Amino acid sequence: MKQFDHNLLVRGEKMKSRHMILLLVATVFLPLKFSMAFDFISQNIYGSFLEYDAYFSDGYGNFAGIRMPDGSSTPSLTLNFIVPEYYIPGERIRIGVAWHTDAATPCYATLRPSFLSVARFGKEHITGSSASSGLEPEDGLNTLYAASKNTTSLKIYEITSPDGVTSLKPFHVISFGLFRAPENSSDTCAGTLTIQGIGLLFGD
Q: Are residues 21 and 56 in the same domain?
């Protein structure tokens, strides 16, 4: 009769524990990870290309960011990104803009889509009927409502295929622009519009 090997039993229990941990990860944590509502990627606003009266500012509190003053020009910004490799065609792509104004409130400021460019490796760009086709405010409005001075709010824009047919896919290069139109009658904020953060949201 063979002598009972206590060490073999301990090793067996350890192996069983490891298998249980792997099973738990595979059945619980991985599905939770892949069922997240969306993935978020922060953009560096100081890497933007600015035109007209838009300018970068630093400082504490409400001063840092991209500043778009009231006036006669149309201050604008341009950013771009590459669609990540894990993006699933058909999922939503959104842009979140954190903004505030130093104007007397309540008031409305404008922040409109100016263009959307979708480049594809080895193929022509995807284009639509206008320069801004495929870039729309999620709420359908080109205005930002400021209820309180220097209070941060969020504006969401949605990116879709400019031609409405061709799917957006991983590694597509997307450039987009936003601009303020201070002289438009819908822009009533007699002060500076400041953008302090821009992020990308992939998924639902």
A: no
Q: Are residues 13 and 54 in the same domain?
A: no
pLDDT tens figures, 158-204:
999 999 999 999 999 999 999 999 999 999 999 999 999 999 999 98
- Into how many domains does the chain fold? 2
Lowest mean pLDDT among 11-25, 50-64, 157-171: 11-25
Rg (the chain; Cα; Å): 24
Same domain, 54 and 74: yes
Rounded Cα gap, residues 72 and 68, in angstroms: 11
If you ran DSSP here, which 8-state letter would residue 27 be given? Answer: I
Residue 7 has pLDDT above 50, yes or no: yes
**Per the structure block, which two tokens stand in for 107?**
């008031």
Which range of residues forms the domain containing residue 80? 37-202
Q: Are 138 and 156 in contact (CB under 8 A)?
A: yes
- pLDDT tens digits for range 72-109: 899 999 999 999 999 999 999 999 999 999 999 999 99
Contact yes or no for 88/204 (Cβ under 8 A): no
Strand partners, 145: 108
Which string of DSSP letters, residue by residue, matches 108-152? EEE-EEEEEEEEETTEEEE--SSTTTTEEETTS-SEEEESSTT--
Among candidates 109, 105, 104, which has minimal Cα distance to 181?
Answer: 109
Q: Is 23 exposed, middle or buried (0-12, 13-18, 19+ CB in 10 A)?
A: exposed
